[in-house]
Amino acid sequence: IGIHFFDMLIWIFGGVRSNIVHKFDTTRAAGFLELEKARVRWYLSLEKEDLSSDVQQKGQATYRSIHIDGKELEFSRGFADLHTRSYEEILAGRGYGLSEVRPSIQLVAEIRNAVISEVKGEHHPYLDRKS
Q1: CB burial class (10 A; 0-12, 13-18, 19+) of residue 20?
Q2: Would you tell me how many other CB atoms lie within 10 Å of the CB of residue 24?
Q3: pTM (whole model) above 0.70
């Protein structure tokens, strides 16, 4: 999970200057990215218990959110047909090439193979919780 998230971050905020991974296991990953135009504390999880109680009460299985300058942008909805629509565009000759997707694929490969750093300094607040 997360490739689209990292792709969006790089597309909006520019290339990766530094990448620190604080957690990486079979169900959760977290870290810190310094991009050209943003500093990002990120957290990805497959665990239902990481969803807030109000999100769970709404029956949502996923929650996607980004905070920019203290304001939240929540974008959990609208993903149901995203892959189908993307493949339709690819088949119609309007897909993205390797040069567009290489930065996010490279970042995810680095995250998967990173040495896990001690949780200190810039880190996602969820890492302060017991998980």
Answers
A1: buried
A2: 16
A3: yes
Position 87 scores a pLDDT of 85
Angle at 25 between CA 22 and CA 30, to 5 degrees: 30
Q: How many CB atoms lie within 10 A of CB 35?
A: 18
Structure tokens at 106: 């490279």
CB 54 within 8 A of CB 65: no
Dump pLDDT digits (tens) for 11-40: 999 999 999 999 999 999 999 999 999 999
| 29 and 23 Cβ atoms separated by less than 8 Å | yes
